Amino acid sequence: MCGIIGYVGTEPVAPLLFAGLKRLEYRGYDSAGIAVLEEGWMTLFRRKGKVEELEGEVPQQLTSRIGIGHTRWATHGPPTENNAHPHLDCQGKIAVIHNGIIENFLDLKERLIAAGHRFRSQTDTEALAHLIEEKNDGDLLAAVAATVAEAKGAFALAVLSEDDPGRIIVARRGSPLVLGKGAHGTFACSDLPAIAGWASHVLFLADGELAELTEQGFRVFDHAGNEIDRPTQPVGIDPVSIQRGGYKHFMLKEIHEQPRSIGETLREKIEAERSVIDLPSLEGVEQSFDRVYLVACGTAYHSGLVAEYLWERILSVPVQAVIASEFRLREMRITPRTLVIAVSQSGETLDTLMAVRRAKEKGATVIALVNSLNSAIERESDGAVYTRAGIEIGVAATKTFTSQLAALALLGLFLAEKGDEIDAPRLAEELDALALLPGQIAQLLASEEEIVLLAERFHNASDCLFLARGSLYPIALEGALKLKEISYIHAEGYPAGEMKHGPIALIDAQMPVVVLLSHHIAYDKVMANIQEVKARNGIIIALTDRPDDPALTGLADHIFALPFAHQISLPILYTVPLQLLAYHIAVFRGTDVDQPRNLAKTVTVE
Ligand code: AGP
To answer: In the chain, what is the straight-line distance between the N-terminal and C-terminal CA atoms, in Å?
Structure first.
């Protein structure tokens, strides 16, 4: 979704804004713009398309040292230069950039037009620029505060005014906003990577707060205009982690980081002797309940589905994964004895946040399972469990997904242990199995060339089916989602036993069918499903821990070998070759792997 950056300091602003916007490109966008005060004049550059193209149009000799920049992911009005941010007031003196949605913008717009304001775009954001103009009697901070008070919805915004040339005003409600201070000035951004390496200390603005940025630093205010003293914290992101480090794409780098990211995720939560799970972040959180929901979207929902399969082996209460945007609409049974786990890489996904709020309203206990620290979902939950995957830049989730699976596997064992539902030997056995994962994944990554050959053969397919059963079924869904997202090939994941109830009609000699088979999960039945595909001339690509089974070698067109592993590890292990397959197919097709069309990394609209 949209990205925000603002800077005021001693350095020329334009190069910093463009560098920051490029670091935010992974969030997904379709147009970009900056506003700077050049020799005191409000100066705007905007265009549809890439930040790099915009940068090429901006004169090199700009001297301004204050400005704001934005990448837009269209919601109100198509991606055009006119709809790109920043937006100006009638006099062209006040510039506004904004993430999120102003829900009452039509009412505001009508009122402002009646009062004589002239609108130039179809965006909701422009209403803010005119409203600030209306309310500005010389105190920009007060005008922004009064505007925010009238606006409905979730948003983060940054405002620059020609009449107030030394400061930027920012405000947040719902959408994230981070303030940073470095040796050469002061920053605001929607996402920490934008300012990593430039700011040494940061502050995550809380909902309802506003801030004033000057060359010297920032001051934070509550909605009533009272200054608040809030401590800053070190940035905590290594600038190296936001570089590709020799890989062609961030996605490939992140796939290869998985031995480490899984290792970190597990190490933090398992005590040295490996038979005790330690989750201090859940201290004080109610751990007795009569049902569990896992709410999430997209890839994170697939993690929830895997947990549903893994947890029902060891917990006696019902466990259900629910798509977050459906959770709010349904009459789910939620009581103070319900545990809700909100799974989210970003911790900012609005659908998931709304599900959290719904659960809290009904008195449920909510645990956030997140990768980004200090997110809205974490703040609104009763406790948090972290995936330690490090920052993920590729829009397609890879290492954060497998870290979610690892963290959820542990969380399930932790809850079972607390409820006396698992004995010590079994717990130790499952933990031992998880500890093998980093090495097993490294071994799978070493077979990447085999996947490259498969990708070369199938990159022109127009459809693809992924079949599996049990805890591998969500991995079939994830394999299909990954392929769709980055290669734009139509793909579907199905429980293998369900194929004969419909999707079998799609199978012909052109259809690659990826089947995930394990000796742990209904092996013979999945073999029977493979027979059904073969009988209709489908092309079988089998991922299996029984690669030498003669019955399989006689049927499959391609076999990729998986290690013979414990059941708890299967979902993570089978994910890795599917990530590589999607990646290499996309590379052969020449798509924009790290920033696939129409997608955003953090989805902050409902
Ligand atoms: C994953 O590849 C997708 N980009 C998407 O489905 C994502 O998982 C979903 O939007 C949820 O995001 P979250 O984990 O940040 O909540």
So the answer is: 12
